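Standup, Tuesday
Yesterday: got the pipeline producing structure tokens again.
Today: sanity-check two examples.
Blockers: none.

Example 1:
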Amino acid sequence: MVVLASKLNHPAVLKELLSASAEVDVPDRGGFTALHYACIENRRKLVEMLVRVRLGLTLTPTLTLTLTLTRKLVEMLLEHGADPLIKTKAGDAPNQP
């Protein structure tokens, strides 16, 4: 349920599940956890909630910087012509907005 709440961007549901001590690291059939989906979809609020529970802490300056730099690097790559829809050799493609 935690994965689904993250995947569907339901912070209120996620908060309730986390308050009930739901397991945060259980992956879905594809091997993705709630934190994977929150990061993939750039859902900062969900990332913060999951990181707090998973690691027992709030976002540290280092983690905040990492998330910010990652976003800025992706933006820079896109500005320089990177194809955000390119597929891997295995046929995997990024999630569409």
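Example 2:
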Amino acid sequence: MLSAALLVLTTANATTYARALDLHALSDEAERVVSGEVVEISTELTEKGLIETVATVVVDEVLQGQPSEEIQVRVLGGSLNGLELSVPGAPKFEAGQ
């Protein structure tokens, strides 16, 4: 099972700063917190031309936020058409997780 906390972070133009948060702090700032299973993974380009991974999660339990049967978790990074964007610390998804 996958527990996913969705958190929106803003980025600066030249430099990105991220702060380390524990699970409690992540949950407090998350739009949704769910438990579920990854059923599909795809990659696509963002409007800015960056590669992002899209994991479709079938929700088993909603711990915080709006209930839904399925959500899409979008994470910067991934491989597309022979190109790869690696983002240190970004989660990696596998179907069945």
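Quick observation on example 2: The mean pLDDT is 82. The longest helix spans residues 23-29.
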